[in-house]
Amino acid sequence: MVAGGVADRARLFEILETVKDPEVPVLSVVELGVVRDASFDDAGAVEVRITPTYSGCPAMGAIEADITAALHAAGYADVRVRTVFQPAWTSEWIGPVAREKLRAYGIAPPGRPATGEDDLIPLLRRGAAIAVTCPYCGSTRTELRSEFGSTSCKSILYCNGCEQPFEQFKAI
What we know:
The chain is an alpha/beta fold. 20% of the residues lie in helices and 20% in strands. It has 3 helices and 7 strands, in the order αββαβαββββ. The chain has helices at 6-16, 60-73, 96-105, and strands at residues 35-40, 46-50, 79-83, 107-108, 142-146, 154-159, 165-169. The protein has a 4-stranded mixed β-sheet. A hairpin with a 7-residue loop joins strand 5 (142-146) and strand 6 (154-159). The longest helix is centred in the middle third of the chain and has 14 residues, at 60-73. The chain is elongated. The relative contact order is 0.14.
């Protein structure tokens, strides 16, 4: 299938919206901000550019395979998925609708990344306590239990209100 117009590019993104993140299956790879762009080259091949949430993200191979499979199933025979690291992924690429989906799924969405005046992240022995809202009951009486959850991009917290553990997507 040779394509390349605006409508065709929009169709690519419709297909990519169906590809779920394997670690957070409530979000598509587009909603998570992993898909940076999708376009056609001069020969009509599809090129999708993706950026990992972390440079060592173990899900990137699965994401690449799922993107390729979805586009092949939609009739695009020549598909290339390219990983790009610039600009680096940031949790600010997760939009409001996707953040609400995380909350409804039981994962606290990321807050704003902590940055200094010069946009450098200060390295502290113990970070300042930032109130994280429990996705189950809405309480801010929560505490960090582990910097790392089921994946490197999430932390484990505990709610003293409803006494439920939950994960929070890290702000990066």
